[in-house]
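hey m, so remember when u said the tokens were messed up on ur end? i reran from scratch. heres the input so u can diff it against urs
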Amino acid sequence: MEFDPVLLSRLQFAFVISFHIIFPAFTIGLAAWLTTLEGMRLLTGDHLYRRIFDFWLKIFALSFGMGVVSGIVMAFQFGTNWSVLAERTGSIQGPLLGYEAFTAFLLEATFFGVVLLGRDHVPPWFYFLSCCMVSLGTMLSSFWILANNSWMQVPLGHIIVDGKIEPGDWWAIVAGPIMRIRWPHMLLAAFLTTGMCVAATGAWYLLRRKDVPEAGAMLRWGLGFVAVVIPVQMLFGHLTGIYVLNYQPAKFAAIEARWKTQQPASEVLIAIPDPLQERNLFALEIPRLGSFIASGNWDAREGGLDAFPPEDRPPVIIPFFAFRVMVGMGLIMVAVSWFGAFLRWRGTLESTRWFLWATFLSFPSGFIAVLAGWFTAEVGRQPWVVYGLLRTKDAVTPSLKTGDVLLSLACYVGVYSVIYAFGLYYIYRLLRDGPAQDVSDQTKMTPARPLAVAIQATKEAPQ
């Protein structure tokens, strides 16, 4: 394998975005979870929700900061490694990223300070409103990023002027049919990621007999939410597959590892794709099912990779396995959440230790599903960076040298390894310690621990 600047730039972007996306995928759902907790506290007056809120607020603050830092680095690469992409598509991508700053970042920057430090200084209704605005800001951020990425996946509403891609219909760019499928799919993925983390945290504490009231609430809320939302996510997943079939048939064929056009088409459940021989080794497949899944017809003709020129075919191995990993994580969520609902109906949810272990061990399922889904979408889009308009090899900075990218990639890996190792370890420490039983406890607060001081400032104002 030759490490040219294009391949290294792709590896660098994949590394950075993989680190970045796990934090928005967590904080989008976590902001909504905090809003729900504060709303329940106002409705019921139960101080249990306050203790859970203060606990997750610390984790949200740290995760949010790590996501912001990695997001800045990701945007920085557009200028250093992908200047041709920025030049050719800047009139579309620039405004979309600017709208994110003027809407999402503005809301988050304005109201997050209130959520973190202002509980003593604002009325309860305004504090709840601030939680809502932070949650809305995280969702708006995902909206503009998905609008940008969805346009790159399926370009709509653009015109070509002097070789540059310019906006022709902003409504089609921002709210076209692809965006109306992909954005809910991403939002639901973020909510499910947080739901599984909340449930797993509750299960962990119950296994340790720690913070039992808070743990029980987290377990019930997390599993109940996932059980309700996962069928909706499966529907949007199917709709996403339909758009890929209609707009990116080469990607669909790669996901299915369908080397030859078939009628009827079988569904390959698992195999080892062999790109050199264009065949599948040790394939386990179901005849005719591929036609039915794609077209709703058991005898439909489904295109294979042989229908496309070799230079327009995406890689097969990564999309093939990444898609199946994503589906597998979804099935784990279905099994855990629905069986949890059954145990709750029987009244044995919090006492069935083997199930608590299963729930705890399933905590990374959402993160893995999100990463696998993005790898499926992005690698499957190749060799295009803007599908059908701009090839990846033509979008890289012309003056970029192999040594330049190797140096920057090594720096990113080194810095990320140190910073995020400490950050993730601190999150683990917060999770290990659990909710504070007395939010007025100041014994552990020192000027050297500003986060602890900030959380103390969120004490509930006297009613």
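this time it looks ok to me. The chain is about 70% helix and 5% strand. if urs says something different then somethings off w ur setup not the seq
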